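Deliverable D5.2: sample structural annotation.
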Amino acid sequence: MNAWWAVGLGLLLSGLAYAQPLPEREVTALMVDEGFSSTVPISGRPLAGAMFEHRGKPNGNELYVWVPRGMDTENAELCLALLARDGRYTGLLRAPLAAGETPFLLHVTFESREPAFYAEDRSDVLTALAEVKQNCAPGHPTQHILPVSWERPEEAHKLTVMINSSRMQAFLVVPYEGKAPQAIECDIIPDPQRIAFDRQCLVDIAELREHGEPQFGLTELVRLRGPNRAPPVPFPLAP
């Protein structure tokens, strides 16, 4: 991961510690695809979602995305993937990324075609992944990943990253300049249906800074099965 990412993630996490209420902008997202599948693939992409720890309850009508300080929002799209833990429900949305002085909260409104799904409390089984791309069409690379909340977040000091660990031991490894890195072990989600994502990693920004100045942009997801290690997964969380 290069220095460009390192600076960007530092901007994101410094923005997350922002104490004053942030300005809010609103955008309507288009539901590109939504529905249920009776067949769920066993494997999938490692990253399932990046959300605030206290994220509220999904209602199928709105969510909030944190846009960090210093991020260029011109000519970019917000690509949102909603994913149930068992992998059967998915929703794909896209919206223009509202331009303006950063940081701000982006209030994304949309209309689910599956209101019965959202009629029940899905706060423990549904996650959202917000990616910034030049175009949401398949094949375009992810530029940034932004944290999401179902309701307007009042605090922004902790993030929860949901991952598909492929049933491996998993860590978020945060390096420091001139000292050993901090490894955040990702906890198993205690549920028999763990196809889409099976672990969650809690990122406590204030606690990490007690150990020095973290190089957040070099953070990686590391997965282990005994002596075997899967390729590390970078997190492009900001510009």
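Annotation notes: The first helix runs from residue 3 to 16. The longest strand covers residues 77-84.
The annotation will be released with the project's public dataset once the embargo ends.
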